[in-house]
Records
---
Amino acid sequence: MRGRFRIFDTHTHVGTALHSGRTYSADQLLRDMDRSGIDRSLVIPFPVVADPREAHDEIGRAVLAHPDRLSGVVCLNPFLPRADFLNEVRRAVEIYGFRAIKLQPQYQPLNPLWRTSDFFFETALEQRLPIICHTGSGIPYSLPALMMDPARRYPDLKIVLAHCGGGLLVGEAIVAADFCPNIYLELSSLMPNHVLEVLHRVPSSRLMIGSDLAENLEVEIGKIEGLAVSDEDKRQILWETGARLLL
Ligand SMILES: [Zn+2]
């Protein structure tokens, strides 16, 4: 709780990142959550890890120890042998109750337009997992518009565009959400003026906050708290949308 609002951070990472060298533990996350008044966090493995099973286990143990504060997300290379991919998704859901599957197109070049990628979307549907797709850096596969294709072909699938196109592509993310009612936008890395632009076209019931990294927490929450919009819009972005979709 932070002032009048409950806070659900729908984009955090725990583990050890091979690409950046960053290490961040669940205990550090919980301390940072307490310091910033974050009620819940959705915890995602870093995009490049030594062993995705171990990354899921590290997050899963924290989720089981703190079910009131943390939920987990599956993230693994979609080009693993198909059976290995499916088994690991199912394992993370069955043992740890993970609530979404993350696609990192800047490190996992899955083209949503190719039929060879359909298994990814069908796995998410089968496991009732929303897809969280990184957008922005890492084009072409991280272009927000590419997710419009699976969103229309799988209307029961929910897709969150993480970083909402990352500033440069915010307009494309807005169009994607405008045309596809099952596309949601996570607002990390946008400037406050971008968030207002999004709010003019996409209802707050499809918008949510994320911090991505601990040092962004105060800025990401503060930029929503400080907007000249209704308390209801802030409540949706800070808690309700994420809670409806991901809890
Ligand atoms: Zn991230």
Note: The first strand starts at residue 8 and ends at 13.
---
Amino acid sequence: MAPLWSVYVLLTALVLLQNFKAHADDDKPLGSPFVQRAVREAIELVDKAYKETRVSQKQQLSKRSLKPSDLLRFFKHPVATTRVAVRSAEYMENTLRLIQQHVHRVHKRSLNATDLLTAADLDTIARVTGCLAIRQPPICKDDCFTDRYRTFTSVCNNRRKPRLGSSHTPFTRWLPPHYEDGFSLPLGWTPGRQVSRFPLPLVRDVSNKILRTRNEDVVNDLEVTHLFMQWGQWIDHDMSLSPHSGSIQTFNDGIDCERTCVQRNPCFPIRIPRGDTRIKNQRICLPFIRSAPACGSGELGSLFGDVNTRQQMNVLTSFIDVNEVYGSTDCLANKLRNLTNELGLLAVNEEFSDNGREYLPFNTISSNLCGRMGESCFTNENSTPCFIAGDVRVNEQLGVLTFHTVFLREHNRLARELKKMNPHWSGDTTYQEARKILGAFQQIINHRDYVPLVIGDEATMKYLSPYEGYDESIDPGIANVVATAAFRFGHLSIQPKLFRVDENYQEHPQFKSLDLHQAFFTPWRLIKEGGVDPLMRGLLGRPAKLQRQDKMLPDELREKLFELTAHLGMDLGSLNMQRSRDHGLPGYNAWRRFCGLSAPRNQGQLSSILRNRDLARRLIDLYRTPENIDVWLGAISEPFEAGGRVGPLLACLIGQQFKNLRDGDRFWWENDGVFSGSQRQALQKISMSRIICDNTRIEFLPRNAFKFRQYPQGYVHCSDIPKVDLSAWREDAQVTPCGSVPVVKHAHFSICKSSVRYTCESRFELVGGDTITCLSNGQWNQEPPGCVDPQSTGHHNIRIKVIQGGKGGCVPKGPNGKCIQSASQNDVEKVQLNEKNVKIKNAILSGKTSNG
Ligand code: HEM
Ligand SMILES: *[C@@H]1O[C@H](CO)[C@@H](O)[C@H](O)[C@H]1NC(C)=O
Ligand SMILES: *[C@@H]1O[C@H](CO)[C@@H](O)[C@H](O)[C@H]1NC(C)=O
């Protein structure tokens, strides 16, 4: 065995040497045979599980009836870019696990994997798994034009640590994770295993005993509208999405997570307690797939930092940048645009319209680039395809879909207005400027109108005192505890119904309000049942659910989540708590201490914090100690802060997060140089009500869309709601110090500081440098370029391409050779690096084959 093995290594080394002679200096020798074997085994395991998952996904999606868990998986399943990143992390994690198991077997004692690995070994593993490529720091450009707008991935927002807040990076940890085995297994993994000297209760047991609320017992919150709830989910979908593992079956033996109570990575099924409120058969489990691991964040010093402990990945950019409209990858962003003209629009539905207003496009545009899983959709007889948007959860329920639709319309409305004022702008400039304005709207409405109503007066003063400028040292990443627990506070304000009302804010005569479970994944209802307006009025004109200590989560969400047919519905409360254990979140008291709050040691102290003896008793009955209470549950149990909708712990966690998102965002709307003074003035007029007025047929509504008023008291006409005057965006081509901008036929241009950049209309090609700069002597530094028709002149394409490439400009592709997206140098390097890794990987794998 051993000799054979070394022959194989030798062979592989030879292959590698041959393949990479050119890179001999930067290719460190591959690690020990032992490490290699582990990597190879891990890659095979993961690839096999992925492949089998793919096959079974296909089968299930083609079936007519879907299980609720299919729906959750639909948006949690990693696709495209996410899949690449997740797969690398899974290779890495499985490699370390295999090494660990082996060591355990041989040495009969528990050692953690990294103790046995040299830095070079780790480097090898990272390289072969692809984690190294993912972690390579990108190079940030700083010319005026490329640095003017956010990147889609938000990479380079922070110029010192370019990945901070960007998509597909690990969540930020505010406290170290707490795993059962110290680095990877969820708390509560081993039944009966003690944490803080007590075993953890089953999450479903907690849900039954603490959260359970009958739909009809729900109490209304007469202060805030149901739209206040919907904004919460909307802003959450701007901040975080944690993907599942790419496999839905166990890695070593291929057991399907959906059909088993077997607990083995990545399956972490939710077990049913005795005397369950709904499920009588205790041998059934509610399916739960662990979130995918992420390649180490590397921000902790050494190359791989804390390589040992499992991190989770945020698929989205953390920044408040409306990524749910635009996408968090270049690929998706392009797919969502209308690139057939120079109008700067987002693509819209070409089959249906809402009384002349736009709908989102269907998710049917075929594209191999962006992956395939996400494009299939749930169809049955009277359904339409699903919609596509910048976030995969767009179809999850009709309320969030309504928001997506209205914000798409707002982008296009802005783009049309801007283009009217600035006909010299290219489609790209128009699109980016509209995107930038919509981003500011989102930040203003969120931080000025929404967050204070959530965290209350005191926390608002503490965390959102007036803006003092950008601080590069702040990590704008979404904290794991915020995505996994704190910001899920909003689940407690969801009504069991989605209301649909008419012009008089009365129950809609034709399209009655829906039980929430009838609104999950039913995009066809938007098109076939009255469009956006009845739903939007329902959000505006009806109160949110009130979070009360005795009326927590209605059955719609606890027994019927994603229940479309007679299948086993999911339980949102159980999911939240199981997820926090999966992510290794420390318990309630750890977070109380983190926030400088008292940590209750017993039932008496807990009951004085909660101001509720009965609840404290029931919590202690389950958890035995306040230390162990799942942080989401403990936090939502606290009474509200004055003027807010959460208790002190959540006010701290949510306040801190929104402060980081403001002060750590280089493109924050108030930051110097992002907008001009007059633009900032204009932007402040925005309100959610205005956006609704401009993009629906609704004419009367509450002035503040978040504050509940009983119609018609306090309702105003749209003409009474201030508008944003866009004239501050008129670009004056006459006033550069060098005089007016030279006119180039068939070209668009855009001004950035003292430079002007030209792009040609489609069909025309640029000759000369695309950018001219006004020098201090009042002269342009060079002649403006020309736009020529290649058919009529027969100009040499080659020269043109070189010029474009050299400037890092556009790479022509897409319809009619259109300039859709320039691949940055980073992308190119990343691809090259990836290709190299694939080669190394293939070499290792083929080495095995040649070995028998
Ligand atoms: C009808 C409305 C809603 C439904 C059906 C819904 C459903 C869900 C589901 C199924 C998950 C994934 C659970 C898991 O497996 O971990 C989730 C995650 C989440 N929800 Fe909701 N939710 C709704 C509204 C809200 C609201 C109002 C908020 C906040 C105010 C919110 C915040 C979040 C957050 C932060 C996550 C974690 C996202 C991630 O990082 O993956 N949700 N929600
Ligand atoms: C790994 O081992 C080292 C020393 O043996 C220890 O200090 C460290 O805490 C361990 N890490 C984990 C995550 O168990
Ligand atoms: C693109 O814009 C043009 C002009 O407004 C429109 O006719 C066309 O339907 C749009 N295409 C898509 C896919 O939105």
Note: The CA atoms of residues 679 and 728 lie 5 Å apart.
---
Amino acid sequence: MFITDILLYLAIVIVRVGWSLRRMVYRAPLCTVPLRFVGGVIRNLLGIGAIAVAGCTSPTGLGDEEPLDLWWWSDFESGRIGPQAERQDGWWTSPFYPDDQAVVQSAVVRSGRYAVRLLINRDRPYLQTKDQIDKPRVDLVKGRDADGEPYLITEGEELWYGFSIYVPPEFIFDYKANSEQVHELQSTTGDERDHPVTVRIVEDQYVISVGGVLPGARTWYYPVHRGAWSDFVFHLRLCRASTTSCEGMVEVWINGARLGKHTGPNSTAYSYHFDIALYKGSWKYTIQGDPNPSRQESGDRYIYVDEVRMAMPGRGSYEQVAPR
Ligand SMILES: [Ca+2]
């Protein structure tokens, strides 16, 4: 892109210089020819410089995002979801779910040209395994595999990460028992009780829980504003109670407001993966298979996600990861 722009501009310059020389020879006073020639050269050099600056600062140009500060990020500006090993827009997504459940789109964005829409549908059967039904979910996961996955979150690392969530105006707040989970850190051992951080939509509130099932676990509440983006920032260090000199810590901000800080043991496993999701533990049926009343009896249910950033362990800051 950058090279072709330069070549095109040089071709224009050659034509313009030729045309200017023709005009100077036939029309201009002889004494102004050198001055006008030098002026034309300067103008054309400035034009090439402007193209170079534009090429280095455009979203697809050489400068792009600040990769040295970030461990990985997903602003969805690549326009697609790639393999989870890719630093930008790389995610693991479940093969059990239809492709239209996580779609990179341009209609609703927090920043740039793209964001992702996560969708579940009340009328579809959700088959995770042959004997486990009606757990509608779509997950974007980073660091899912314990072996060889470079983005596992491990005990003792100081981390900063942020993301932004948009709940559309038509989103129906469901009963408390039918809440949605939109973010979690999930242990790689698969312990369902072990979530040092979760964000759920419970009726009309974001419920941010820290510490899982441990004594001293903490919960914060923040209103869900439909039709607006909500910016989340987390600053944390995971640690287990069994760890000597445990210095666990979790700080939370929403829309620039600091909700608070939890200190002490916050986890029970050594490593975790990062999950952004739209997930209901049950919807059409309970896990036992009984009919489950909901305020939304059919159709799509969706949220949007953008501006996901995780700073290099031990090197982050609020500014590096906050949605902008
Ligand atoms: Ca974006």
Note: The radius of gyration is 26 Å.
